[in-house]
Amino acid sequence: MPTTTTGISSTQATRRLEGSSAMRPLIAPLIVALIALMLAGLTHWPPALADRAAALAFAGAILTVATTLLGFTLAALAIVASITQTTLVQRMHKTGHYDDLLRTLFYAGAVFLAIDMLGFALLFGTPATTGVMSVALALHAAALVLLIDAARKFRLVLTNL
Question: Cβ neighbours of residue 38 under 8 Å, at least 6 residues apart?
Answer without folding.
Answer: none
